[in-house]
Amino acid sequence: MRVEEKLYTLRYKRDEEPHLRIRDQAQCAKCEQEYGTPQPCISVCPANVYTWDGHKLVLSYENCVECGACRIACPFHNIAWSYPRYGLGMSLRYG
Ligand code: SF4
Ligand code: SF4
């Protein structure tokens, strides 16, 4: 089963309060110079949460599947990461 198909088996309850935050966008610009594009967070995220608009990192936190990979992959510990508030975020559609 492809990742896209697996993602379809999830459902999301949007938390209005983002559970992911970039601590310092200037660091992301330096990261782009050092690692190129896509940066590590973009490479590892299975849900396309991160995109680089040429100047800053844009987050679509609503799509996050809460795997935690970006938090580990960011070489600068630049992602403030927490789970969505209770009852919000993603859940399995079946099971
Ligand atoms: Fe920013 Fe970290 Fe992503 Fe690099 S890996 S762009 S520093 S969040
Ligand atoms: Fe992407 Fe996983 Fe990070 Fe969510 S926790 S933004 S799905 S890498």
Automatic annotation (TrEMBL):
GO terms for molecular function: iron ion binding; iron-sulfur cluster binding; oxidoreductase activity. The keyword Disulfide bond does not apply. Could be a 3Fe-4S cluster-containing protein. The keyword Ligase does not apply. This is Ferredoxin-like protein. Keywords: Electron transport, Iron, Iron-sulfur, Metal-binding, Nitrogen fixation, Transport. Residues 55-84 form the 4Fe-4S ferredoxin-type domain. To ferredoxins from P.putida and C.tartarivorum, ferredoxin I from A.vinelandii, ferredoxin II from D.desulfuricans. Coiled coil: none annotated.
